[in-house]
Every structure is written in structure tokens, then in C-alpha cells.
Design goal:
371 residues; Aspartate Aminotransferase, domain 2; Aspartate Aminotransferase, domain 1; 7-stranded mixed beta sheet; binds pyridoxal-5'-phosphate; pyridoxal phosphate
Length: 371
């Protein structure tokens, strides 16, 4: 844990990142620069030239994200925008890509439908057996831990070391943890991708994503991809995300602490057939979670008796929004099988929000009692 703690971002300094660089009379809150054109007589030199290439609101947001990640960042209009940038900027025909077979399903779709037909060989492995077979001959290894929605873990440091030794690069989707909960770059991973639609934004009112890397060549490749493909975020979304990040620390702390308390209690409830939460000592991933995660996250899965009972639980609990996606201030839940994930019909992914924990427990327990 020592190493992990040492690299934690200073969150007080984060809140004053902008303020400490201000001149007298400037606004304390971040201005929203909503312009496609810049006043540009004569030679463009190094001035902002066009809205697809430069935007001051993105730059401020990337500066904030850089503080959180401890690495330069580039923002994208969604998590998939960031994942596409990372994969299209690094892969070429004839190369081999390894992805988790049980990770976020749209990453698999992207690989299957678009990367394969460009001559990239796509290999899938379940997260729980990700290291089986080694990493020789794999050019890009894409990781997701905890995997969404199964919440299996993979040893980031071990995989990063092995892939680097055989000449490949590693990309980790850190959406479920945020840089406050897990720091893949500090564990040796080359690139982090994330959907900021989830806990980073936190208010369920925007879609965005980012890429973070300490490798200047990879950063340049991702930057070029954004400029040339046009996968740019809107300035208003960037502004909203910047605002959301100012409360990330308090929101995330509340969500993770509540999840730890609730998981212990939910594990005892007779209506819960199975539970996965990396923070539970009985979880198969607990030891690895303790060694590589700073927090255990705010996601857990509950398996209830059947689809009907799971729907009843989700739809009758007054403090649960029946919704896809996660990481908002409002607790939410859904049955993942409705999207085709390989899970039990009664499998519920629960995202713990910012409600006071005792109120939330009363509501969850009450809904489970009626099943
Ligand atoms: C939601 C999600 C994404 C995709 O993000 P969008 O912002 O919806 O494009 C990618 N990875 C994981 C793990 C996610 O949960």
C-alpha cells in the first residue's frame, strides 16, 4: 500500500489548481470557451487556430485530469471515443490485440466489428484467467479491472511487466475505479483510458472520456488521432466535467465507504444468493484488491433468486434508479443480462451513490425483505 499511497494526488492542491494561477480580476470558476474560430490575422504561429484543434476549456480540464492521473491527458467525447483513440492510434494491420472476454461489451464490439476487418487479430481471455498463456506475440494488451460487470480482477503490475518484457504495450480501462481508487500508470501500465461519463462526471448529465499516458509518443499518437478523426468533446461537456471533478474526492469517498458497509450487510441477507465486491474478505479477488487498489470501489453485484425477483428489487426500492450506467450521485441498478452479458438472469449490478448510508440500507433491506 505504501507505494500506492505515495502517488495519490493532493486533492487540496487540486481544488486550487486554477485559483493559484489567476491574475487579479479573473473569474475563479472556469470560463466556458464556446468558439470554433479564433481572431487570427497573418501567420498562425502558435496561436489557437481552429476549434477542432484548440479549446481553452479542454486545456483547463486536461490540466485538472493531469493532476489526478499524474500524467498528461487528452479528453474525448465519450469513454468509447477514448478507447477508440487508444486502439486506433496504437494498432496496425498484422498485429495482435488481447482484450478481456468479460469486460465492457462495446470494447469487444469495436474490436470484433472494426479492428478485425482492418487485419488485426483479436484474442479474448476471461479476466480471471488473463495471464494464462502468457503475453508473447501480443502487441497491445487491453485490461479492465475490476471487470464490468463481473468484478473479477487482474494483477496490473504483473501483466504490465510481462507485456513490456515481450515488447507489447498495455492499456487499462480504469472507468470503474477512477484515479483516486486505482493508479494503473503507477503500476507500470502504458496508457489509461476511462469513461468520465460515470463517477468522474458523477451527475449523470454528460458523456466524456479521457486517455492518460506518460509516454510522449503514445500521447502524440492519441492527440493526432483526435485532431484528424475529429473525435472532439464539446466545450460545454468539458466545462461540466471540470465542475464535477471538483467534488470527485467527497463523492467517491462517500460512495466507496458506503459500499463497504452495505456489502457486509447485504452478504448476510437471505434473499442474496451471491455477492461480488472486492472489499469483502470472502471475495476471490480480495487479496489482489488490497495490494493494487486504494479503494474497493462503489460497484457490487448481487445475484437474486431469478429475473422476476431482481426486477422487483430494482423497481420497488425507492432509493434505486433502474438505469444502465453507474457512478452517479443517485444509487442505480440493473440486470446485466438484458444487454447480453454472460451472467445469471437474477444478476444485478448495483452502483452505490451518495445517499446517507443508513437511509440507503433501510431502503435496500426493505426492498429485499419483500421479495
Ligand atoms: C461506460 C463504460 C465505457 C464506455 O463509456 P461511454 O462514456 O459510455 O462511451 C467503457 N468502459 C467501461 C468499463 C464502462 O463502464
Amino acid at each position: 500500500m505504501d507505494d500506492i499511497e505515495r502517488h495519490a494526488p493532493a486533492m487540496g492542491a487540486f481544488l486550487h489548481l486554477r485559483g493559484n494561477a489567476l491574475s487579479k480580476g479573473e473569474p475563479v470558476a472556469l470560463p466556458l470557451v464556446q468558439s470554433s474560430m479564433y481572431h487570427l490575422p497573418g501567420e498562425p504561429e502558435r496561436f489557437s487556430n481552429y476549434g477542432r484543434v484548440h479549446n481553452a476549456t479542454w486545456v483547463a480540464l486536461e490540466h485538472a485530469l493531469e493532476h489526478l492521473e499524474g500524467a498528461p491527458c487528452r479528453v474525448f467525447p465519450s469513454g468509447m471515443g477514448a478507447i477508440s483513440a487508444a486502439l486506433f492510434a496504437t494498432l496496425k494491420a498484422g498485429q495482435r490485440l488481447l482484450i478481456p472476454g468479460d469486460g465492457y461489451y462495446v470494447t469487444r464490439l469495436l474490436s470484433d466489428r472494426y479492428l478485425r476487418r482492418l487485419g488485426i487479430e483479436v484474442v479474448e481471455r476471461p479476466t480471471a484467467e488473463f495471464t494464462t498463456g502468457g503475453f508473447a506475440g501480443l502487441d497491445v494488451v487491453f485490461l479492465e479491472t475490476p471487470s464490468n460487470p463481473g468484478l473479477d480482477l487482474v494483477d496490473l503490475a504483473a501483466v504490465a511487466r510481462a507485456v513490456r518484457a515481450s515488447g507489447g504495450i498495455t492499456i487499462c480501462d480504469n472507468t470503474t475505479m477512477t484515479p483516486l481508487g486505482q493508479r494503473p500508470l503507477d503500476l507500470g501500465v502504458d496508457m489509461v483510458v476511462a469513461s468520465d461519463t460515470k463517477a468522474m462526471g458523477g451527475h449523470s448529465d454528460l458523456l466524456m472520456g479521457h486517455v492518460a499516458t506518460r509516454d510522449p509518443d503514445l500521447l502524440q499518437a492519441v492527440d493526432d488521432w483526435r485532431r484528424i478523426s475529429g473525435a472532439i468533446p464539446g466545450p460545454h461537456e468539458a466545462w461540466l466535467l471540470h465542475r464535477g471533478l471538483e467534488t470527485l474526492d467527497v463523492r467517491y469517498d462517500r460512495m466507496c465507504t458506503s459500499a463497504e458497509i452495505l456489502a457486509e450487510r447485504l452478504a448476510q441477507h437471505s434473499a442474496v444468493k451471491a455477492i461480488r465486491f472486492p472489499g469483502l474478505p470472502s471475495d476471490p479477488s480480495h487479496n489482489l484488491a488490497r495490494s493494487q487498489m486504494r479503494r474497493f470501489g462503489f460497484l457490487m453485484s448481487l445475484t437474486l433468486e431469478d429475473a422476476g425477483k431482481a426486477e422487483q428489487f430494482i423497481n420497488t426500492c425507492p432509493l434505486l434508479r433502474p438505469a444502465t450506467s453507474f457512478g452517479g450521485v443517485h444509487s442505480s441498478a440493473e440486470r446485466r443480462i438484458r444487454w447480453g452479458d454472460a451472467v445469471d438472469p437474477g444478476f444485478v449490478r448495483l452502483s452505490v451513490g451518495c445517499e446517507p448510508v443508513e437511509e440507503l440500507w433501510q431502503a435496500l433491506n426493505g426492498a429485499l425483505d419483500t421479495l
